[in-house]
Amino acid sequence: MWPLYAAGFTTAFGAHGIAANLGGFSEDAVTSLLVLGGLLALYDGAEVVLKPVFGSLADRIGGKPVLLGGLIAFAGASALYAIADSPGWLWAARLGQGAAASAFSPSASALVARLNPAAKRGRAFGSYGFYKSIGYTLGPLLGGVLVWAGGLRLLFTVMAVCAAAVAVWAALAVPVVPPLPRKRQTVADLARRLADRSFLAPTAALAAATAALSVGVGFLPVSGAAAGLGTVATGAAVSVLAATAAVVQPRTGRALDAGRLTTRTGLLTGLLITAAGLAAAMLPGLAGVLLAAALIGTGTGLITPLGFAALAASTPEERMGQTMGSAELGRELGDAGGPLLVAGIATVSTLASGYAVLAVLLAAGPLLALALRPRTAQEPT
Prior knowledge:
The protein is mostly helical. The protein has helices spanning 2-25, 33-61, 63-84, 87-114, 121-173, 187-195, 197-226, 231-257, 263-280, 285-314, 320-348, 351-371.
């Protein structure tokens, strides 16, 4: 399991470590906000398009080959810019990183599910989410230190070495999980499975959590600055959000496996806490920012391992990669849609109004989908 946790850390560290430092330390390559937006969109756009594709490929040929191929491709794409050091190659490297992460991220999630029995998947996904959260937390900080010390090339070099090391580790330690026989699946069959509540409810919750997380990371510093807080205080608030999510996820997974928490109750509670965090962001001053960060981190920390565990429990083993890839697509849409929604509302009204609208959506839409989900024998009322 440890190489899979390392793969989760790598994709999170690579995404946030580079994205957080593109604008401030690469004046030769990022000449305008439009160029910066394009470079950021390349990575996420590749993930939106390719994650379901690579998830299905993992079901067809096995998760380990796709995992290793993605890590090797990520190392190669990172090395591309580290060697070339050209603005044009930065675009190619960023696109390559996004495509490679689209391969090894859903493959790692599918392997986490395949390598653990149902009774231990909560803890496994909690630990996997913990290390991804560590990557999200440390990425901007360590990335900034590396860029300060040796420029953007050094950061890409470290990412190449990290991905290559994890690939070697995974090749040696992760067992081969052969693909399972699969029944023929038509497009209509896939649509029915993805439209089922057992898929839609956890995926909607994961997308909502990711939307709130992105809004918290992106806009809480704006709220802090508007309240007269310095960069240290606002940076600490974002760190509180990520650290809280990291701490809560393993505990949530253990509680699920021990029977102290059901998926339904946990997801409902997580959505309510996250919505409360967005509402707290409307409060002025440092107290509102810190309370929002803690609540959003707690809510997303509850939702993430429970959502993936629920998807794994309701998915045929032979379709695990396809489900994880499709769920990751939902998360990417939430990652992009949440900030766009809040920014759009803030443009015509206020940032507080943007927080309020997203809070209402989190407390209404996904909650309604979960409330209509039929109870199972494993989830008592």
